[in-house]
Design goal:
The structure holds two protein chains of two kinds. By secondary structure, chain A is α+β, with helices and mostly antiparallel strands. Chain A has 16 helices and six strands. Chain B is built from four helices and eight strands; from the N terminus they run αβββββαββαβα. Classes of the chains: A alpha+beta, B alpha+beta.
Chain lengths: ~525, ~120
């Protein structure tokens, strides 16, 4: 059982605590250590204080009750402080379960919506044609003959339907690019409007024309034309509501990433909160640098050191004086002679120096490597047939000379997870093919780029949750705050209204540009 | 009421009589003037009121007739031989001071230190 559970989750270790054999305890604790060493890239954990447990720990209350009152509980109890191994394992479980949920249920909702809209659209499109054809089919002989006028109307119906078809295709037939939590209000409104509209037309048609077998064919055709006109106007309404209304910027939105404080500003128009969230996320993938958990270890270790310094234990009984505790902690922290700011300063200066040095070495190595590759001109192809290489081979040929410098630089800037050797080779051959300079090749590695630049499994951010105090279909207002959460970090979005600008004019007559000479002379007499 | 009387400039004046010195073909007084209604009053370092376009003494040559007569740097010249100097151009002021047929000029000047001295004596 223990071997099977020896995964990243160290929760399994606690099952060894049986209170019977001490050997099992030691094995359990050793097993804790191996997963921890693998977690090089994970966040630091604070040390859990563990005394050799002679007593059972959690969950074995039955045996405790058997032994009666235990006077040594103060020394043998384990205190779990700060982040314990429990929280890490729970994160894992959450991640696994979320991946499993990536599932069928949500897709059904999306496809249902699409099919309803498609069926409705088809119905709506065929309705005018049906209006025109049904009298012909059902009571052709009774119809009044209607010559050129009707033919003219047929042509206009045909072209209007064609325009409607093209317009609907342009506006609506697009790949859904996102899955939003609530129904898209305007779209739903329009669908309902169209449905009611067509329904009422059919009702009228059924009662007044089909039942009474109206013989005025021109009137019927004009009725169908009016339907098509009204559909075109609804299409216009759809364009205005869905596309045009949000174009004029009304709000400025500030997006801050919670882990490292990187922020951006965007301009949005009148949108609902969920649509604004979509816009923010689309821009997130392009504008924000990729989330790198390795960069956060420094601040986390500092935070852990702060917490490790002081722990407050309430030994006088159950009175939970939380505010008193926190005050005591803050006072003690202030009194302690803390030199962590000094450490931070020197560490950062040192790190910068190291990065700059490695960067210089890298740039030189890449430049030297690139000088070895020359593009073959057409006439030189005949002269050196033996040495010709395609870009991939050329890349492989010069890669070893710069590999070490590149790897060292990536290690120093903690980006080594994001670039595999294969991806580097591919990028190198791409640059060689497109005649790029060494600097152009390096721009991808010198600084972390936006999330889109990297491989999908390094994104850390695929499933998003919108957390909002107001309904997500309500519009943006000044002061709205909502949070976009993914497993590892969140984006806090703050909405501000663009101020009302009072612009006045002042006319300056070009003739008023006149000047005087201001002297200050001194004369001796 | 004492303060309002003090604010008026024109009461604290001094009469100075300068005898011109002959240097070759010229009669010199031994000081330099600045100011005038055609000049920029804001650049005048000696005036209290920066819109004052009057004529001020900007330099006094050492040992010259003006210094001997008691003229000091920063004095404002109100009259020259009875001619008003508070509303003249710079060139007009120069002309009035350098008339070739006059050997003595009698100036009516006012100065800030004079004003302050009188203020102090009135207050004590």
């Amino acid at each position: 059982m223990s071997a099977a559970m020896d995964t990243e989750s160290t929760y399994s270790g606690y099952s060894h605590y049986s209170g019977h054999s001490k050997k099992a305890h030691r094995q359990g604790r050793d097993r804790h250590k191996s997963p921890r060493s693998k977690d090089g890239s994970r966040s630091e954990k604070s040390v859990t204080i563990q005394t050799p447990p002679a007593e059972p720990l959690l969950g074995n209350d039955a045996s405790r009750a058997e032994e009666g009152q235990d006077d040594n509980w103060g020394e043998t109890t384990t205190a779990i402080t700060g982040t314990s191994e429990h929280s890490i394992s729970q994160e894992d479980i959450a991640r696994i379960s979320k991946d499993l949920e990536d599932s069928v249920g949500l897709d059904c909702k999306r496809y249902l919506g699409l099919t309803v809209a498609a069926v409705l659209g088809l119905l709506v499109f065929l309705t005018p044609i049906a209006f025109i054809l049904l009298p012909q089919i059902l009571w052709r002989d009774d119809l009044e003959p209607c010559g050129t006028v009707c033919e003219g109307l047929f042509i206009s119906v045909a072209f209007k339907l064609l325009i409607l078809l093209i317009g609907t295709w342009a506006l609506f037939f697009r790949q859904p690019k996102a899955d939003i939590p609530r129904v898209f209000v305007f779209r739903a409104l329009l669908l309902v409007l169209i449905f009611l509209f067509v329904f009422s037309y059919w009702l009228f048609y059924g009662v007044r024309i089909l039942d009474s077998k109206d013989t005025n064919y021109q009137g019927i055709v004009q009725y169908a034309v009016s339907l098509v006109d009204a559909l075109l106007f609804i299409h216009y309404l759809a364009i205005v509501l869905l596309e045009l209304r949000q174009l004029q910027p009304m709000f400025t939105v500030k997006v801050v990433r919670s882990t490292d404080g990187e922020s951006r500003y965007y301009s949005l128009g009148h949108l609902s909160i969920q649509r604004a969230a979509l816009v923010v996320l689309e821009n997130y993938y392009r504008d924000f640098t990729v989330y790198n958990p390795a960069l956060l270890t420094a601040s986390k270790s500092r935070a852990a050191k702060h917490m490790a310094g002081l722990k407050v234990y309430n030994v006088d009984g159950p009175g939970n004086n939380a505010s008193g505790q926190s005050r005591a902690m803050i006072a003690a922290a202030a009194r302690r002679r803390d030199s962590s700011h000094n450490e931070l300063y020197y560490e950062e200066a040192d790190h910068e120096r190291r990065v700059k040095k490695r960067r210089a070495r890298l740039v030189v190595a890449v430049e030297e490597a690139f000088t070895h590759i020359k593009r073959l001109q057409a006439e030189e192809q005949q002269k050196a047939p033996g040495e010709m290489m395609d870009p991939r081979e050329a890349a492989q040929a010069i890669f070893p000379s710069m590999a070490r410098a590149l790897q060292k630089y990536l290690r120093t800037t903690r980006q080594q997870q994001y670039h595999s050797m294969e991806s580097i080779l591919q990028h190198l051959s791409f640059c060689i093919t497109n005649n790029m300079t060494p600097k152009a090749f390096l721009e991808r590695y010198l600084n972390p780029g936006p999330t889109l630049q990297y491989d999908r499994d390094r994104w850390f951010s695929k499933q998003w949750t919108l957390v909002s105090e107001e309904a997500v279909t309500s519009g943006l207002q000044d002061g709205t705050v909502f949070v976009l959460k993914c497993l590892d970090f969140s984006l806090v979005v703050n909405v501000k209204k663009i101020p009302f600008i009072k612009l006045s004019e002042e006319f300056i007559d070009p003739k008023s540009h006149k000047f005087v000479l201001r002297l200050q002379s001194e004369t001796s007499v | 009421s004492q303060h309002s009387a003090i604010s008026s400039f024109s009461f604290f004046q001094q009469r100075i009589e300068i005898h011109k010195l002959r240097q070759g073909d010229n009669l010199i007084l031994g000081f330099s003037i600045g100011g005038g209604i055609d000049q920029d009053p804001t650049q005048n370092p000696f005036s209290e009121d920066k819109t004052d376009k009057g004529i001020y003494v900007t330099r006094v040559t050492e040992g010259g007739p003006a210094e001997v007569a008691g003229l000091q740097i920063g004095d404002k010249i109100m009259q020259v031989n009875g001619w008003d100097m508070t509303m003249v151009t710079h060139d007009q002021a120069r002309k009035r001071l350098t008339k070739r047929n006059e050997e003595v000029v009698r100036l009516l000047v006012t100065r800030q230190s004079l004003q302050k001295a009188v203020q102090q004596s009135m207050m004590s």
